[in-house]
Amino acid sequence: MIRLLLWILGAILLGGIVHLSTVLAMPQTAKQDAYSRLAPLTPVNAVALLPPPTAKASLMPFMDPAFAVAVCRYDISSGPLKFKAPVSQAYTSVTFYTRKSVAYYAINDRAAGRRSIELDLMTAEQHAQLPAEEDVTAADRLIIESPTTTGLILLRTLAPEPGLMPMARRALAGAQCHVEEPQ
After folding, report:
1. In percent, how much of the chain has pLDDT > 70?
2. Contact of 44 with 75, CB cutoff 8 Å
3. Is the pTM of this model over 0.85?
4. H helices of the chain, where?
5. Which of the four pLDDT bands, split at 50, 70 and 90, describes residue 135?
6. Is 56 exposed, middle or buried (0-12, 13-18, 19+ CB in 10 A)?
């Protein structure tokens, strides 16, 4: 009887180890992650509006039909990225993801406290190379350090009613995402 219980306990333990290692390995082995799905549809270092989701199909899983969505696939290996997005009347959020879909920064219109969300995205090395400017404070210039040189910036704007979706899409159309020219 004890031998049977030990076999059952060993099988449960082995099953748990296999399950945990599979769950942890899935994001690394997935072929159709968000970056790969968006690569053929979106240019690098430019904002592209995504089509609204329908009942039968959506570009990404779990897309909310009440939000207009735009994305910027970025590559900051050649220099820092300037990002600017106007805020809508209802709600606007901007989320930053690495190439492997790990979220590392998010900001919304309430936190920005302005009529637009403006920031500089760069690697830690690029940030260290910036000259120290005494007259520019942290409140004047929001700098985000990206852990990777490639990734996604996801912009979402709420349309509180279906008739306001064109207004939300127009707000996203004014967003800009481009690499800063070296000086």
Report:
1. 93
2. yes
3. no
4. 2-29, 34-38, 109-112, 124-128, 165-173
5. very low
6. exposed
